[in-house]
Amino acid sequence: MNNVPTEITTLCAALAEGTRWEILTALGSEDLSASDLARALPVSRQAIAKHLQVLESVGLVERTSPVPESTSGSVRYHAVGAPLARLAAQLETIGRGWDRRLATIKQIAES
């Protein structure tokens, strides 16, 4: 019964924390540094760095090179959509299965 792909459980565990959703949403719009994210969100830069480490470990964010004209030289991060697309496809499959089951139950109840 426990044949859930590891990637799904890993992604869900990483996304189970609200701040990580906020980080991922922000990075979906533009590449940002940990300092940029700490200024935009109500958490410390150290906490942002830990959240980024978790998101990076499951493939949801990647580091990019510092912007050449940047004087800070800080590493920037960007969101990676492919893992979320795979998760969405799996959830869609599960949803279709439940829809079929519920339709069958409804049909039985109405007959």
Provide keyphrases for this structure.
mainly alpha, Arc Repressor Mutant, subunit A, 3 strands, 64% helix, 9% strand, elongated
Describe it:
The chain is 64% helix and 9% strand. It starts with 5 loop residues before the first helix and ends with a helix. The mean pLDDT is 89. It has a domain at 6-80: Orthogonal Bundle (Arc Repressor Mutant, subunit A), CATH 1.10.10.10. With 111 residues, the chain is mostly helical. The chain contains five helices and three strands.
Summary of the model, kept short:
GO terms for molecular function: DNA-binding transcription factor activity. 64% of the residues lie in helices and 9% in strands.
Number of continuous helical runs: 5
Briefly note the structural class of the backbone: mainly alpha
Mean pLDDT, all residues: 89
**Unreliable sequence segments:** none
Q: Strands across the major sheet, in which order? A: 1-3-2
Give the class-level CATH name of the domain at 6-80.
Mainly Alpha
Alpha-carbon Rg, integer: 19 Å
Helical proportion, percent range: 55-70%
**And the CATH topology of the domain at 6-80?**
Arc Repressor Mutant, subunit A
Distance between the termini: 32 Å
Domain HTH arsR-type: 1-94
InterPro entries: ArsR-like_HTH, HTH_ArsR_DNA-bd_dom, WH-like_DNA-bd_sf, WH_DNA-bd_sf
Pfam family, one: HTH_20
GO molecular function: DNA-binding transcription factor activity
How does the SSE layout of this entry go?
Elements: H1 6-15, H2 18-29, E1 32-33, H3 34-40, H4 45-57, E2 61-64, E3 76-79, H5 82-110
Helix pairs in contact: 2-4, 3-4
